[in-house]
Fold this sequence. Notes:
The chain is α/β, with parallel strands linked by helices. Among the domains are: 38-173, Leucine Dehydrogenase, chain A, domain 1 (Rossmann fold, 3-Layer(aba) Sandwich); 196-368, 3-Layer(aba) Sandwich (Rossmann fold), CATH 3.40.50. It contains 15 helices and twelve strands. The model has no long low-confidence stretch (mean pLDDT 96).
Amino acid sequence: MSNLPSEPEFEQAYKELVSTLEHSTLFEQYPEYKTALKVVSIPERVIQFRVVWESDKGELNVNRGYRVQFNSALGPYKGGLRFHPTVNLSILKFLGFEQIFKNALTGLNIGGGKGGSDFDPKGKSDNEIRKFCVSFMRELSKHIGADTDVPAGDIGVGGREIGYLFGAYKAERNRWEGILTGKGGNWGGSLIRPEATGFGLVYYVNHMIAFTGQGSFKGKTVAISGSGNVAQYAALKAIELGATVVSLSDSKGALIAEEGHSVTPEDIEKIATLKLKRQALTEFSHQGKYKYIDGARPWTHVKVDIALPCATQNEVSKEEAEALVKSGARFIAEGSNMGCTQDAIDIFEAHRREKKDAAIWYAPGKAANAGGVAVSGLEMAQNSARLKWTSEEVDEKLKGIMEAAFKNGLETAKKFVPTKDGEFPSLVAGSNIAGFVKVAAAMHDHGDWW
């Protein structure tokens, strides 16, 4: 791969998967899977295009648009669209690569992909965002479809953007079909979809806690990073289950609850309003119960039982991982994609092996944050059947999917990763192997490798 430009985020995701496969007995038992790894690491298709749009001042602007259609062995490509100035091919390849195995762990028939643009919605009017979405979808519509590729939202792409994109697709292709998930509730969207990633994360961690014999979220102190949908709904569900949430964050810094205070559902409602207006969290530092620390993340400023990174990639460093271990945290699970650096994961995994049942236990995003894409898959099913399920029906299906993802990773780790007595199984290795094997087996059946 030396002839290719450096893609640090993708290379990190690839190495993280490979390291767990190589340190398991998988290749010893099934050496042919080494060939599958070579094939699955290259996208089936990468689409790149220009997006030209006009500002309210009549100025012409141009951005880059992308769709990485990584793997369709298990079903149509499925994964979000991200509108953010940092978007590049490396980031989208990393996200698409992770998405392959995350989607496999849901048990649903969906492949993996990711897309987006380096367009920044911040500071843009609704009309400018609409114009950009129309131009973006004019090209993307040539490459997606209900049985081909079904994008969803991601950073910078919420309900408003999904609406504009869907309307543009419908006008361009003259058909109403479930080509996007995260749609409005009155035009094909699924109930529980906005909550799904955050709720699913908490359901997953609840199984981790129960497995260790430490009860449930009740009475636990929780640090959460981020303040978007994932963080908000993870916080609300954790509070509902009896936990105390002591932090949130945004791209500029961390919001930390003062001693004796905690995040409340009322605070989260106000923060959600701020986020819709694309405003910072600094306002909350003036309310007497919070301090806002510029340029910080929560992990070194709180003492907690559970840490839930829910913002973006690489938001827990080696030093922050060491601080969480030293403070006595017992569980860390990623609500974001690749939320921990490889150095941080190494710290957590070493502690798991050394301290056994007294260790911190780490869960990777490809398993712990799979709830969002799981309910996106359920939205696809509802669209195909022209049905709408109740909140209770969707929530029960989500709980079942997260339980199955936890048990799958757990049992796969026991099968392929040797452990000592009293040692928790490696959820990162188990999840990686379980997702990889499922996709590789389907690819083999299709003749993609032999």
